[in-house]
Amino acid sequence: MSNPRLTPLVDALKAFFAQASHSDGDLSRTAQFTLDHVQWAQTLTIPDAISNPLVDAYLEGVCAHSGNPESATHELGQVLLAASDRLNWRASFYDPTLGPNVVAFSRKFTATSLIGPSGILPYEKVSAGFSLQGPDTYYPPHAHRAEESYWTIGGSGDWKVATKPWFAVTPGASIFHASCARHAMQTNEQPLLSLWLWTSHLDSEVVIVRS
Questions:
Q1: What structural domains and CATH numbers belong to the chain?
Q2: How far apart are CA 83 and CA 85, in angstroms?
Q3: Could you read off the pLDDT of 77-128 as tens digits, one per residue?
Q4: Distance (Å, rounded) from C-alpha 103 to C-alpha 148?
Q5: Dist CA 135 CA 51 (whole Å)
Q6: DSSP states of 138-184
Q7: SS3 at position 79
Q8: What are phi and psi of 153, to 5 degrees?
Q9: What residues have CB less than 8 Å from 125, skipping those under 6 apart?
Q10: Are the C-beta atoms of 146 and 172 separated by less than 8 Å?
Q11: Sheet of strand 138-143: strand arrangement
C-alpha cells in the first residue's frame, strides 16, 4: 500500500540513485548495486515518527539551499522536507569519555534511515538515509568497516578523507569512503544535509579515531 508522504520520497530516492549510477567509479557502482537489489515496490514500513530539534531548526533552510530548482538535489530535498515529520530522526550517542569534541558533535547531528534493516524500505544488504549536521559542528575523525557513499544534498561544509587535504562540499558533491577509511566533516555558517549509502558490513560499528 502506498503512503502519500513516504512513497514519493522513496520514488525520488530511486530516481536520484538512477542518476548517480551514471557517474564514475565507486559511486556509480554502489548506486547501481542499490538500484539492482533493493525491492523498490515492496510495502513500506511506517516508522514511529520522532522529530529532532535540529530538524525543526534547520531542515527547511538547508533544503532551500539545495542547488538550482531543476537539480536532482533540490528535488530530493523538497520531497524529504514534505515527509520529514513522518520519519524517525535518531540522535547520536557516544561515550563522553571520548572527549568534548565528540560530546559537542552528538548534540548537533541527527540521521534517519530509509533503506535497510531498520528503514522504511527493509533490506539486508543496503543501508541508506539522510544525515543533518548543524552549523559550526565538527564531526571528529571516525571509521567503519562498511564502504560508504555520500552525496551532499543541501548546505555546505568541509570534508576530509584519509590523509588527503580538507575540501569544500556544496549541493551535488559526492564522496566515497573505502572500508575502514578515516574521514571527518566540518560545517561552518550553514548546516549540511547529506544522503549516505552503505553497501557492505551493515553491522559495522562507527569508531571515533583518536588523534
A1: 6-201 (2.60.120.10)
A2: 6
A3: 999 999 999 999 998 766 777 778 888 888 999 999 999 998 999 999 999 9
A4: 24
A5: 18
A6: EEEEEE-SS-EEEEEEEE-EEEEETTSPPEEE-TT-EEEE-TT--EE
A7: helix
A8: -95, -45
A9: 37, 199, 202
A10: no
A11: 167-169, 157-161, 183-186, 138-143, 207-208
